[in-house]
Amino acid sequence: MQPTPDSPLAPQTRLVHLGRPARVPGGPLNPPVELSTTLHAATDESGGADAGVVNYARSGVPTWQALEEALGDLEGGTALVLGSGIAAVGAAVQVVLDERAGSGRTPVVVAPAHGYSGTLGLLDHLRATGRIDLVSVDPADTGAIVAAVDGADLLWVESPVNPTMEVTDLVEVCGAARRAGARSVVDSTYATPLLQNPLALGADVVVHSLTKSVAGHSDVLLGATVTADDGLAAALHDHRTRSGAVPGPFETWLALRGLRTLDVRLQRAQENAQVLAERLLEHPAVLRVRYPGLPSDPGHEVAGRQMRGPGTLLAVDLAGAREAEALAAAVRVWTHATSLGGVESLLERRRRHSGERGTVPEGLVRLSVGIEHVEDLWADLAQALDATAR
Questions:
Q1: pLDDT in tens, 286-332
Q2: What are the two backbone dihedrals, phi and then psi, of residue 366, each rounded to the nearest 5 degrees?
Q3: Would residue 242 show up in a list of annotated catalytic residues for this protein?
C-alpha cells in the first residue's frame, strides 16, 4: 500500500505505511539508512551537472525524503527535515525575512510574550541586532493578536504554548495575518500532526521539533517545516542547503521509526495526562492546573474546535520556586529533566532557566506525561507534592 494525499485512510494508518520502499519481492520493508555523502555524477545533455539529480548529500538523501514524505502527507504540504527544532524555527523566520528584503523598512514580527525560549531568544537576537522590530502579544488574546498583525510581516504562533499551555485561535489569527499581508508560522510541536494541522487552519508554515513526540524516545535531535506554498517550500529547501542545517541520516531513520508508533504512544500518554490533570485539581499544594483537556481551562473551547485531543503536556502552578524545586527533587518515577514528548514522564520548573520569560510564574512546573502506568505516576506525584508542604 502506498498512501496518497487524497487517501481515504486514517492518519493513524498512513503514518505506519508512508515513507516505505516500493513493494518488491525480496525487497526491504523499511527504507535503508543512506550513509554516503558522495554520489555518482549525473550530466545533462549540455554537458553540465544534471539539476534534477542530487549530486551531494547536503541537497537531500533518500532517508530524509522518506520521513519528509510521511510528515508532508500528515500535515498536508511539503515537508523539510532539518538538523534540530531551532534550525527549523530559524529557517522559517529567515525565509519570511528574505521575502521582505528590499522593502526599505525593518520587518515587523509579532510573537507571543512567552513561549519556547529558543524561539524567543532567536527573535530577541534579531531585534537586538536591528534586523526586526518585535511586537509581543498575549497568546490567548485573539483581539490583541489580530490588531498587532496590521502592518506586520510575520506572525509567529505557538499553540499550545510552551510552558504555560495557552491555546491560540489559529483560524482567527492566521486569517487576520493573511488579510494583513503577513506570513503566519505555527509551532505545533506539542500537538503533533495527529492532533492539529495548522496549514488546514490557515497557517503558511508549520514547524515541529521532531526531537519531541514524533521521534518519541529522547534520542534524536531534529526539526521540520511543512508548507503548502510551493514558493516557500523551494525557499526553505534552498535555505537548508545554503546554511547546512541538514539532518543526519541515522537520526531521520530513527524519527521515522518513532513516527510509526506515534498514535499509540500519544493515546496512552494523553489518557494519563487527563487523569493526572483532574486529580491535580484536587491537591491542596496545587494553585492552578494548566491543561486544555479540563473544562475549566481558558483554552478548552478553542482546543476543542481546532485540536483532536488536548495532548500530553500540562503544567501546574505551585506556591513558589521553593515548592516547585522540592517537587522536582522528591519524585522517583518521574524524571527531573528538560524536554518533552518521550515515553518517559519528565517534569521541570521552567523559571530555573535564565532564558525563560518573566511572565512564566516562578512556581510553574511543566509535566511531560509519558506512557507509564497512570497509578504509578500519580502515586509518585502525590507523595512529592505532599513533601513540598513539610
A1: 999 999 999 999 999 999 999 999 999 999 999 999 999 999 999 99
A2: -90, 135
A3: no
Burial class (CB in 10 A: 0-12, 13-18, 19+), 333: middle
Euclidean distance between CA atoms 219 and 344, whole angstroms: 12
User: What's the pTM value of the predicted model, to 2 decimals?
Assistant: 0.94
For the beta carbon of residue 37, count every other beta carbon within 10 angstroms: 10
Highest CATH level, class, for 11-260: alpha beta
* H helix runs in 60-198, sequence order: 62-75, 85-99, 117-128, 142-148, 170-180, 192-195
Q: Checking DSSP bridges between strand 108-112 and strand 133-137, what pairing results, if any?
A: parallel
Question: What residue segments make up the domains of the chain, in order of their start?
Answer: 11-260, 262-388
190 as an active site residue: the answer is no
Q: Are 17 and 27 in contact (CB under 8 A)?
A: no
116 is catalytic: yes
Catalytic residue among 20, 73, 116, 317: 116
Q: Annotated catalytic, 187?
A: yes
Q: Cα 95–65–257 angle (5° rounding)?
A: 115
167, 302 contact by CB (below 8 A)? yes
Catalytic residue, candidates 183, 212, 265, 349: 212
* Sign of the alpha-carbon dihedral angle for 198, 241, 255, 21: positive
Which CATH code, of 3.90.1150.10, 3.40.50.880, 1.20.1250.20, 3.40.1160.10, is assigned to 262-388? 3.90.1150.10
Catalytic annotation, pick one of 73, 187, 297, 380: 187
pLDDT, tens digit, for every residue of 181-191?
A: 999 999 999 99
